[in-house]
Write a structure and sequence with these properties.
The protein is about 50% helix and about 10% strand. It is of the alpha/beta class and about 230 residues long. It has 2 domains: about 5-15 and about 100-230, 3-Layer(aba) Sandwich (Rossmann fold); about 20-100, DNA polymerase, domain 1 (Orthogonal Bundle). It has a 6-stranded parallel β-sheet with strand order 3-2-1-4-5-6, with helices on both faces. The longest helix has 17 residues, at about 40-55. The chain is globular, with a radius of gyration of 18 Å.
Length: about 230
């Protein structure tokens, strides 16, 4: 009997190449607003974006505020024209992000392999509703998933236990030890899984040091390794 019946995948930088898509979408957004890009712009935006997402995941701001804050902070710190509309910048960025939906290498092959062995799969993502579902659909991965949970739609984000409780209910409450959470974020995916008693697999392709005080059940460098974990008897 297999150890796992369900696999809950994070989306960005676990199944989808978000890092590349974000870089391309950001440049396209600047072009839309006729802003001449410099080498400092994207690192500055990433810093503002990461700060906004941390605040969101900690419950300090909601998804509406996140949309505005990251670009409002960016345009201020970058010294851009203050008449630029942060929400319109966000809208352009998200529209371009949808265009650049790029699966990570090996992700599609992994989904085919798990599906062929009747493993149930779903996506659990901290993301914005207007972009995550279209990106998953555009990737060609949507048919593999029983459901998709988007934080913006349910009003709570990983690592909040309520997010994982929602996913557990979507699965009709299987044995938690039969559910494997796979994700690249130690703080949202791995700590969130641990706090809800789900086994976890940390996708850590860059061999980053463990920032926590515990070890995940598994740690992998290649997403393809999930197949070995899940399909082992």
């Amino acid at each position: 009997m297999r150890k796992y019946e369900w696999v809950l995948f994070d989306a960005d930088d676990t199944l989808l190449n978000f890092s590349l898509a974000a870089r391309l979408a950001f440049s396209a957004m600047l072009s839309d607003f006729r802003i001449l890009e410099t080498e400092l712009h994207f690192p500055l935006y990433k810093s503002c974006n990461n700060e906004a997402w941390r605040a969101y995941e900690q419950g300090d701001i909601d998804a509406v505020a996140l949309r505005k804050k990251r670009f409002s902070d960016f345009k201020t710190k970058a010294g851009l024209r203050q008449d630029l509309d942060a929400l319109e910048m966000n809208k352009s960025y998200l529209e371009n992000l949808i265009k650049y939906t790029i699966p990570l290498k090996g992700a599609m092959e992994l989904l085919h392999a798990l599906a062929s062995q009747h493993i149930k799969m779903a996506v659990i993502t901290n993301g914005l509703k207007e972009v995550q579902r279209p990106r998953i659909q555009n990737s060609g991965m949507a048919p593999f998933f029983e459901f998709v949970v988007v934080s913006d739609e349910i009003g709570t984000a990983k690592p909040d236990p309520r997010f994982f409780a929602h996913a557990h209910a979507e699965m009709c409450f299987p044995d938690k030890q039969k559910v494997l959470v796979v994700g690249d974020s130690f703080t949202s995916d791995i700590m969130g899984a641990r706090n809800f008693d789900f086994p976890s697999c940390w996708f850590n392709p860059e061999s980053m040091p463990n920032p926590g005080d515990f070890c995940p059940d598994y740690e992998i460098r290649s997403i393809a390794k999930v197949q070995d974990i899940v399909l082992s008897e």
